[in-house]
Design brief:
- Its main location: cytoplasm.
- Pathway: Metabolic intermediate biosynthesis; chorismate biosynthesis; chorismate from D-erythrose 4-phosphate and phosphoenolpyruvate: step 6/7.
- InterPro entries: Enolpyruvate_Tfrase_dom, Enolpyruvate_Tfrase_sf, EPSP_synthase, EPSP_synthase_CS, RNA3'P_cycl/enolpyr_Trfase_a/b.
- The chain is α/β, with parallel strands linked by helices.
- It folds into two domains: 209 residues, Enolpyruvate transferase domain (UDP-n-acetylglucosamine1-carboxyvinyl-transferase, Chain), CATH 3.65.10.10; 189 residues, Alpha-beta prism (UDP-n-acetylglucosamine1-carboxyvinyl-transferase, Chain), CATH 3.65.10.
- Helix content is 30%, strand content 24%.
- It has twelve helices and 21 strands.
- The chain has a four-stranded mixed beta sheet with strand order 2-13-15-14. A four-stranded mixed beta sheet has the order 4-5-7-6.
- A hairpin with a 6-residue loop joins strand 18 and strand 19.
- Helix 1 packs across helix 6, helix 2 runs parallel beside helix 3 and helix 3 packs parallel to helix 5.
- The N and C termini lie close together (10 Å).
- Bound molecules: shikimate-3-phosphate (S3P) and phosphoenolpyruvate.
């Protein structure tokens, strides 16, 4: 890859043959990596952590955990912001947590309110409910909370990982709809891997005061990143791609992509060291609820539009508060291909079969890695230009290089 791709204003991409036969070593999961880093920081002995992600979100977590500065800047990493908020509180580390302009527009009130209820002194430094926040003192006063689970599961994961360090542990009673549930399950399973047990009854999760025990963990490849390869295989004329480092029994909820793509043209065959993606048939009508796998929604919206599938995607409420308002961003960029997406204001996307046209303009990415990666597979249909290629660094820094390995021409 020419070195200047990540620093370029835009990239131009196309695929001359539209035939793809390759194997790809995906980046490791940033969700797993950021959890084991927090657990390791709470553990008395250092753990053996293998295969940590090269994603910027994880590199930022590593850097900030090692820092003695008062002010920690998470850039645009949601998990890093939320996990450090609970972590710095329970270890009684005075900290100012801040981030990018967008991070300061992403809500954190549910987590801050919960920590205040437990006895934390945390102040909003600019806008009520949003970073930057100043974490001051922590004097634990209680061990039970009622928390809504519909805005972000990251608040719950953050508290759960910190819970064993509290003098009386913590009982979280989840109120109302819980979104992104597999991420909470991942948190609890990783805690268990490091010797911390929990009890989950109905809507209540209880973690007693306990010590994490040093253990080893090898982070799996990232299932969210796999989705772009599923889309590529579905759109190619001919394709057989092996994604290395993915397991059939994954902790990651985004392994749901296997089931989704059974409908959208890709079969998955697992082997010891990864999974083979091969082309199959695509359905005409597709409806899916993304409540528990929100990071897959953009990939599927763009792919379904390209394949002329009649689509109804639901459970998209949380997309509005991620790296950008992803519903509006997907609608506006699909419009450049002559595709009309409806009902974005109801947290759903309805896209009827329409002929996709060559794009009328450059694809904007809105500082969102998933916008760049969800639209890139369309280079199998048209030459496309995507602005700000560096956005992929948040989760998949080698994305453009891997596209080149698969025969895409990528020009700065
Ligand atoms: O806990 C995690 O690692 C994540 C949880 C999800 O966020 P929400 O819980 O806010 O939906 C997901 O979108 C994000 O990319 C990573
Ligand atoms: C939403 C995402 O990450 P985060 O919330 O951790 O910034 C993502 O990676 O798509």
């Amino acid at each position: 890859m020419s070195n200047n791709i990540l620093s370029a204003e835009a990239v131009r991409i196309f695929h001359p043959s539209k035939q793809i036969h390759t194997s790809i070593l995906l980046p490791s999961s940033k969700s797993e990596s950021n959890r084991v880093l927090i657990i390791n920081a709470l553990c008395k002995q250092p753990c053996q952590l293998n295969n940590l992600s090269e994603a910027r979100d994880t590199q930022t977590m590593l850097r900030l955990l090692a820092s003695d500065d008062l002010m920690l800047d998470v850039i645009d990493a949601g998990t890093t912001m939320r996990f450090l908020t609970a972590y710095c509180t329970v270890i009684n580390r005075e900290t100012i947590l801040t981030g990018s302009q967008r991070m300061c527009e992403r809500p954190i009130q549910v987590l801050v309110e919960a920590l205040r209820e437990l006895g934390a002194d945390i102040e909003y430094m600019k806008n009520e409910g949003y970073p930057p926040i100043h974490i001051k003192k922590f004097r634990p006063v209680k061990n039970e909370l009622y928390m809504r689970g519909d805005i972000s599961s990251q608040y719950i994961s953050a508290l759960l990982m910190a819970a064993p360090a509290l003098p009386n542990g913590l009982k979280i009673n989840l109120v109302g709809k819980v979104a992104s549930l597999p991420y909470i399950q991942m948190t609890l399973q990783l805690m268990q891997n490091f010797g911390v047990q929990h009890e989950w009854n109905g809507n209540s999760i209880y973690v007693a005061p306990q010590q994490y025990h040093a253990s080893s963990y090898s982070v799996e490849s990232d299932w969210s990143a796999s989705s772009y390869w599923y889309s590529i295989v579905s759109l190619a004329h001919e394709a057989e791609v092996k994604l290395l480092g993915l397991k059939k029994d994954s902790l990651q909820g985004d392994a749901e992509i296997v089931k989704i793509m059974e409908h959208l043209g890709v079969s998955s065959v697992f082997e010891e060291d990864g999974v083979w993606l091969r082309k199959t048939k695509t359905v005409k009508d597709f409806e899916w609820d993304f409540t528990h796998c929100p990071d897959l929604a953009q990939t599927i919206a763009v792919l379904g539009a390209a394949k002329g599938v009649n689509m109804k995607l639901t459970g998209l409420e949380s997309l509005k508060i991620k790296e950008t308002d992803r519903l509006i961003a997907v609608r506006d960029e699909l419009a450049k291909f002559g595709i009309e997406a409806k009902d974005v204001n109801d947290a759903e996307l309805h896209i009827s079969p329409q002929a996709m046209q060559a794009p009328s303009a450059m694809i904007r990415t809105y500082k969102d890695h998933r916008m760049a990666m969800a639209f890139a597979p369309l280079a199998l249909l048209f030459e496309i230009s995507i602005e700000k290629p560096e956005v992929v660094e948040k989760s998949y820094p080698r994305f453009w290089e891997d596209l080149e390995k698969a025969g895409f021409e990528v020009f700065a």
